[in-house]
Design brief:
The protein is an alpha/beta fold. The protein has 2 domains: 6-247 and 451-470, Aldehyde Dehydrogenase, Chain A, domain 1 (3-Layer(aba) Sandwich); 251-431, Aldehyde Dehydrogenase, Chain A, domain 2. It contains 13 helices and 21 strands. β12, α9 and β13 form a beta-alpha-beta unit. The longest helix has 21 residues, at 95-115. It binds NADPH dihydro-nicotinamide-adenine-dinucleotide phosphate (NDP). NADPH dihydro-nicotinamide-adenine-dinucleotide phosphate binds at residues 146-150, 173-177, 205-207, 210-211, 214, 225-227, 230, 233-234, 246-249, 280, 377, 379, 405, 450.
């Protein structure tokens, strides 16, 4: 079985631990490679390499830094199919979605490459004569990127490309469930021309490698995507570092009686069971308003029952495996909780027998907002139907959870749509579209327990730059702000 290494200071090296761990194909449970079990001492070396590379990279003009991103986009495009197959093999999502994962990285590379010729600051007026005032963006420094497994190419790209174009150097700590995708991503960056030390890769357990990055004094920024509990502990430990946190969701779709129900049905099924429900923006609650509930139940039950579970590489598969055994157990625990709380199980609710980390697409109805299955992130193919008498009740239910990432409303009534846009507490609201499907040139992120970072789009630069304010006084004399002003 192939064994992969850490990438530190321009070289592929083994971990000082002398230990490795396996990454499994979740559809077969077979290992696909062995990876270094990195330690705090490896992080120490990676951070030193990133610090050493920082001055030169910072001084490289942004349009020149951007060439690496353009080249990376080309390489990603050339290897899209090969990488997509790897995403499916290591993470499990069905092949068309895996292609989307890689496409998102291509789009991100191209979008942020363009920033090499923008990185706009602001010029403004001064209250004093012969004085010029402006802001510029400066890099944060050495940044630690801590990424999850559910978008194993796209999420590292969402962080690495803006970080690089802004002039930061990087230590990437990927999820221990998808280290091969991260290794291939780093190989592409190297081939694209990233100088030694600018990008470093340390695989290994979050509690060791991730923690060492979060607490290292020379790491000036941490960009994290993952569970709320992990993010909260990172926020506490990171002290004065610049911290970006993208955490969980309990995303809902409101369906009004006037909605195009066939369209809503397509959106709900795609949002709830796409990526086997393992998207931070996955729809896990349908809030059916008024008389729509019976028809919504009927349609969703039929569609959920018809979904075909199987390996993601098979073209006949609709829903692939979950990431690991713990995810299957967690999803099943929530099924038991839902039943015990009095929700009605309409479809699924168990894992099939045989190899692979599969779980049957599951649908509950009669769910009330106080039930745990309506409040907690399951991160599996489990959907709850709730009922609300009016739109305002539905919005209250939508807002009653701790998270606030994505949301959707299906209606033909423009007034209802705008009322929902204004009142829903979430970073993203879709009208007549599902909760998933972010585009890379728009801001992405949440509110409340999801965190408040905005990655992607023009806001994606904020996480990886500081704004520096510059005053140039060309009056040739001492001018005192607030004092020498009439
Ligand atoms: P985890 O929080 O378990 O892990 C995320 C990353 O953090 C992994 O690299 C992990 O390493 C690392 N980590 C674990 N413990 C620590 C620690 N103590 N200190 C530093 N790093 C640590 O999340 P998952 O990988 O399971 O991802 C699923 C979660 O991600 C879901 O909650 C989902 O909603 C969220 N998510 C949010 C998105 C958003 O943009 N809002 C997008 C995608 C997912 P290791 O793998 O070694 O444990």
């Amino acid at each position: 079985m192939p064994a992969f290494k850490l990438y530190i200071g321009g070289k592929w090296v083994p971990s000082g631990s002398g230990q490795t761990f396996a990454s499994l194909n979740p559809a077969t449970e077979r290992p696909i490679g062995r990876f270094q079990k990195g330690t705090a001492a490896d992080v120490e070396k990676a951070v030193a390499a990133a610090e050493k590379a920082l001055p030169r990279w910072q001084e490289t003009p942004p349009p020149v830094r951007a060439r690496v991103l353009y080249k990376a986009a080309t390489l990603l495009r050339q290897r899209k199919e090969e990488l997509a197959r790897l995403v499916t093999t290591e993470m499990g999502k069905v092949l068309p979605e895996a292609r989307g994962d890689v496409q998102e990285a291509i789009d991100t590379a191209e979008y942020f490459a363009g920033e090499g010729r923008r990185l706009f600051g602001t010029t403004t007026t001064s209250e004093l004569p012969d004085k010029f005032a402006m802001t510029i963006r400066v890099p944060v420094g050495v940044v630690g990127l801590i990424t999850p497994w559910n978008f194993p190419i796209a999420i590292p790209s969402w962080k690495a490309f803006p970080a690089l174009v802004c002039g930061n150097t990087i230590v990437l700590k990927p999820s221990s469930d998808t280290p091969l995708c991260a290794t291939r991503f780093v190989e592409i960056l190297l081939e694209a021309g990233v100088p030694p030390g600018v990008v470093n890769l340390v695989t290994g357990p979050g509690e060791d490698v991730g923690d060492a990055l979060v607490t290292h004094p020379a790491v000036r920024g941490i960009s994290f995507t993952g569970h709320g509990t992990t993010g909260e502990s990172i926020a506490k430990k990171a002290g004065t570092k610049k911290v970006g946190l993208e955490m969980g969701g309990k995303n809902g779709i409101i369906i009004l009686p006037d909605a195009d129900l066939a369209l809503a049905e397509d959106g709900v099924v795609w949002g709830a069971y796409g990526t086997a429900g393992q998207r931070c923006t996955a729809a896990s609650r349908v809030i059916a308003v008024g008389s729509s509930v019976k028809e919504v139940e009927r349609r969703l039950a039929a569609r959920t029952r018809a979904l075909r579970l199987g390996p993601g590489l098979l073209p006949t598969t609709d829903v692939g495996p979950l990431i690991n055994r713990q995810a299957v157990e967690k999803t099943h625990r929530y099924t038991e909780v839902g039943k015990a709380e009095g929700a009605k199980l309409l479809v699924g609710g168990s894992p099939p027998v045989g190899k692979g980390f599969f779980y049957r697409p599951t649908l509950f109805t009669g769910v009330t907002p106080d039930m745990r299955i309506a409040r907690e992130e399951i991160f599996g193919p489990s959907l709850s139907i709730l009922h609300a008498p009016t739109l305002d009740d539905a919005i209250d239910i939508m807002n009653s959870v701790e998270y606030g990432l994505s949301s959707a409303i299906y209606t033909r009534d423009v007034r209802a749509a705008f009322r929902a846009i204004a009142r829903i507490q979430a970073g993203i609201t879709y009208v007549n579209a599902s909760t998933i499907g972010a585009e890379v040139h728009l801001p992405f992120g949440g509110v409340k327990g999801t965190g408040h970072t905005r990655e992607a789009g023009w806001t994606g630069l904020d996480e990886f730059t500081h704004v520096k304010t510059v005053y140039v006084d060309y009056s040739g004399k001492l001018q005192r702000a607030q004092i020498d002003v009439e």
